[in-house]
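quick one before i forget lol
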Amino acid sequence: MVLVFQLVVAEFISLSMPTIAAVNGHAAAGGCALALCHDYVIMRRDRGVMYMSEVDLGLTFPCYLSALFRAKFVGSAQALRDVMLRGAKIRGEEAVRMGIVDSAAHDSEEEVAEASVRLGEQLAFRKWNGQVYAEMRKSLYPDLCGLLGLVQNGVANSKL
């Protein structure tokens, strides 16, 4: 199962389009990791937590997940420690302050869906080159990509 999930993470990191996770409830363990694979995370204000339950269950993290979390928790070593080593449950507004969730100002599933679709439409309007976007994303996460065996292809597609 761990290998299958590693392949899923590699696919998300390699996608040729922006990705948005709409979190309407708890995102625990693999669900939390899956949400953090996305470029943007939209979460409910009143319901749900981001939570890595492995420490509570006596399980370890594969190195690639540790690399994903290090990449996403850039500004907060304490938050990273608390999530990974204490099993801290992070509510939406706190996750926004930590920088791992983009928005948690939504009070219903419908509002989360609407905000996610609105952001998706804004991003799609930009009509970015998908191959360039995928390479840019990979460049943000060199340690993770190394562990996943993903290589950068150095795509250049100027509009000048």
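fyi The longest strand covers residues 40-44.
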